């Protein structure tokens, strides 16, 4: 620091709001405008590393008069307990509850990438946005573990049991536990196949390979989180809007991603933020926590370019395989894993060789109203197909209809995912080894382009470990963003742009699903809080929409959590923005809220992409991800169409206050998220694709991609059944010819 300058150290958790807080506090102390230029923070997980940056900033301020050290952690409780009551219904303002909420805030803030405590401490009375943020946080604090008897008003009291942790007596054991994991030092030097990622694609590929007699190592970046956390925590689930790191990973230790925002600027994004585009990083990947909607793509979904032409600025293309080629694998997956639902009236679905193995669950009150309304509107409807047992099947129980479904662990294993179907089957063969908490950091290829080994890295007792394991076959199933990352970060002198990337295609055509829909309040209660919640759908708008490219299904929503419902009601304006948390008005609205939503088929573009920044590496030495691109204007038109059809449907069902989703403006941040796909496009031409129809990476015939990355387009419906079916097709193709 230069002579005459003095340092300012502001030590408290980093967050977007921290700069503003620092400015306010420093200006108040010094009365000098110059202080307002000083913004510095010490990042929670690396307190020792930041001060030099901070001193640099401080030295730019000639007026800096003294060294000030502030630690917000020590000064918060009183301030917290004075702000929290302003957001609560008066009946909840009790000293015991306030203390409990303040303590919970301190605990949760430690797991938040965005500043929770800031939102409470520095909310400005009278500023609507700030008051809104305060109510959102206080609502999350109140319902962090569901609904408890001490906070439920008379309307919600009958639902306390539904919205709290499932009874341990009724739980069924997981089919995999920590004993199923191998330790890194016990790995063999060589396997027939290494499968990278244990999600939808990886699990089913591992099963097919292990059942063919091959020795298989499945490497999974995530671990096996505690079931208690996955059952009881309403905020650290991937469906919560709270911004906390989900238990299903990745956690605060995860690397940042560089993301291009809608205005063209770039920002470093933490894993708990939506823009990071997380699915889930845990044993089973997304299938551990997903909602399990199990839609087939139809013939037109696989032939979008020939059906609609290619709009300007889009990279729309046909799949290199037809529906008829995929159909047998759809049927196999439906029968193997167990899909319930039917009968289907989907006019855009292809022929089926077998009906679904299980019938649907019973109708919800909202479902019955929507069914009658659809009949009046002339819409076809069907139960939402679900990878959920409606009767005991495959050694797994039937659905209990609990209220903690999507985003939570299924207490009885009725919801099928890799962790309770394909991975246990793979292990049962005796040919598969499962390695958790380990990342594939590089695929090493020889001069002939063939993969020779995979470099693995992990951390144990605070120390990094590394292993290199040889394999005859590498199956890449790390999810659309991470699979592209691994190919790009495995560059060699011979493949300087990354593996399979001679034509600059790896990472391009990133897509997910823009969602359209509407919400509404009905005069009567329409919610029964029985999971899974998704019940009725129409597939009429998947195609055939005048002037629109593609379209999508519409369905009612998964069973919500109390905290997300209150946030949502306020954000949509269905309840007054100043309605206190837990007020009678809010509680009544929670039981009258109906939602209909659906994913729209995106037309995607080559500029929507995953890249890596090789000059920035995470603590494992891996290049960090850069995400860029935007939805296409056609995606927004499709989304608006779905929103208006959803609003019509809810209105016909008798809703009194209907709100279609607000329109979006271009450019948007890149699309990806839970339905991420497309980054290793499947095709017949190496100039425009990354893998052939058999999933093999061009120029690297023993590297195969078997996850959502291969999707050329992502359908107007949830993608996972297609990921399973296509991965099974690819894996069995390999088994047949290898
Ligand atoms: C809350 C939620 C609800 C959802 N609901 C639905 C639904 O109702 N219907 C539907 O169709 N889809 C749904 N999805 C999406 C669905 O889960 C995904 O489409 C699907 O899991 C993607 O499969 P995948 O094989 O491409 O990748 P994933 O399932 O994401 O699996 C990839 C795995 O690879 C691991 N990994 C990443 N990098 C590495 C590495 N370098 N080394 C080792 N391992 C690595 C990850 O940790 C992850 O476990 C939902 C997802 C979530 C989170
Ligand atoms: S509602 Fe969902 S989580 Fe609950 S038992 Fe049924 S499938 Fe499992």
Automatic annotation (TrEMBL):
<dbReference type="InterPro" id="IPR051473">
    <property type="entry name" value="P2Ox-like"/>
</dbReference>
<keyword id="KW-0274">FAD</keyword>
<dbReference type="InterPro" id="IPR007867">
    <property type="entry name" value="GMC_OxRtase_C"/>
</dbReference>
<keyword id="KW-0560">Oxidoreductase</keyword>
<dbReference type="Pfam" id="PF05199">
    <property type="entry name" value="GMC_oxred_C"/>
</dbReference>
<dbReference type="GO" id="GO:0050660">
    <property type="term" value="F:flavin adenine dinucleotide binding"/>
</dbReference>
<dbReference type="InterPro" id="IPR000172">
    <property type="entry name" value="GMC_OxRdtase_N"/>
</dbReference>
<dbReference type="Pfam" id="PF00732">
    <property type="entry name" value="GMC_oxred_N"/>
</dbReference>
<feature type="domain" description="Glucose-methanol-choline oxidoreductase C-terminal">
    <location>
        <begin position="607"/>
        <end position="727"/>
    </location>
</feature>
<keyword id="KW-0285">Flavoprotein</keyword>
<feature type="region of interest" description="Disordered">
    <location>
        <begin position="231"/>
        <end position="255"/>
    </location>
</feature>
<dbReference type="InterPro" id="IPR036188">
    <property type="entry name" value="FAD/NAD-bd_sf"/>
</dbReference>
<feature type="domain" description="Glucose-methanol-choline oxidoreductase N-terminal">
    <location>
        <begin position="322"/>
        <end position="513"/>
    </location>
</feature>
<dbReference type="GO" id="GO:0016614">
    <property type="term" value="F:oxidoreductase activity, acting on CH-OH group of donors"/>
</dbReference>
<protein>
    <recommendedName>
        <fullName>Glucose-methanol-choline oxidoreductase</fullName>
    </recommendedName>
</protein>
<comment type="similarity">
    <text>Belongs to the GMC oxidoreductase family.</text>
</comment>
